[in-house]
Amino acid sequence: MERRLDRYSRKSFFGSRAQIRVADGTASAQLAFVGYDRRGGVASYAVRFLNESSMPLRARLCCAKGRHETVLDYPSEIEIAPFSVKDEIFPVRVGETGPYDRAIVEIEGAGVAFRAEAPGPPQPQPRIVGYLRWAAASVVCLGIAAFGLAAAAPRIVSFDAPPKMTAGTTLQIPYVLGGIGTLQYDVRAAGGRQVAAGMVPASAGIVQVAIPASRGARTYRVDLRMTGPLGSVRRSASVVALSTARMPAAPGRSIAPGAVASTLIGALSVSSAPVRAGGPLRVAYTATASSGKVWLLGLGGRVWATAPFAADGTSVLRVPTNAAGREMRVVLQVRDGARQAMSSVGIVVEPHSSAVVGAALPGVPPDSSATRIDLSQARVVSGENVTVRIAGPHDDVRVTLTDARGQTLEQGDASAQEDAVALSAPAVGSPTTFYVVAAISHGVSQTSVVRKLVVTP
User: Fold this and answer.
1) Residue 423 phi/psi, 5° resolution?
2) Which of 116, 60, 52 is nearest to 85 (CA)?
3) CA-CA distances (angstroms) from residue 237 to 163, 169, 170, 213, 218?
4) pLDDT of residue 164
5) Are 356 and 449 in contact, with CB atoms under 8 Å apart?
6) 317 neighbors 280 (Cβ within 8 angstroms)
7) Which of 1, 29, 226, 366, by CA, is between 20 and 30 Å from 273?
8) pTM over 0.90
């Protein structure tokens, strides 16, 4: 019986313990509520009596609701012998006693009386409470599911097609997507002739379309359609291409393509010359606008860096270290109410000053502590393999073969345990110069190393 009481007490103990001192020792009782059989209507109580005196004791169980107490006819009065330990399990039939707040065990002896109490069984809740809880849980689950579906549903957050542009230039449309899906764009002339189309998987960027030159103004329709597993969304806009002669721009400066249609942008220039990978790129401009954005784009439309439009006419872009050797464009897009304009200027990103570029200078010994790359051949025939050897300490290394315009032709990776990457020379019709760019990681820093590669037919 002692092990049975301990098991109930460890599982759930709701009750109290009482102790009293008698002439030649002590007496105590511990009462605990251990369970309720709702189907049978029986509550169970465990009680332990500890009599450490020479006095015999008697105990009985009763139930109380408020101040009214009911003595149970069962079990009969319990005798507790001197110097003994007694464990009992009391069943209480709620159907016979009626609802009660607490169970009480009373212990008496010669001139001695004390009691211990435990709570009554939990009162059954109305069914309406269970229904309300179920309904509340269902509403919460539906809300979470709806929020997840709304977040994953495809949506075009931003679509800034300029209303006017100059024919013979590039139409540039910044966009921002939300949810899950891919973007498909379609540009058509007024008669329905398709000018350009394609798909863009990125979540933000600029769609670029070359608009042919024309003698008069022509209207083009731009359609964006984002499709995902949870549906699709579509946005459209019309762009008017004006036939206007472009003013010659000074080196490093650009006049807005839509300058005749919109004078929001006066000039755009890049003051950081030369532009180096891993360093800041300061963009200066004069514009009359309330908002806008500055983009650093690759020739394929990839977004490398962005910065917000500043009222003082200066924004700073951080050029990534792996952009070395690439030809890129700085694009300024501004908006003033319903009017918007865009302008761009081209740049070439040079390796960081700490990188090793080309061969070592004559008479200057190479820095043995710096990591460098060596080509197995500096001049190869189309289709031949070129081995790029990595000399010096390094972590991960990404080797990229690019052309003069910065387009990536082939890539390879080397881990910290590898010291070579193999590249294949592209097919050419005449001797062509390519660039091998190695982005070498050292902990949290990165160094770009560039080598020239001449490929012959």
Assistant:
1) -125, 155
2) 52
3) 8, 18, 16, 20, 14
4) 76
5) yes
6) yes
7) 366
8) no
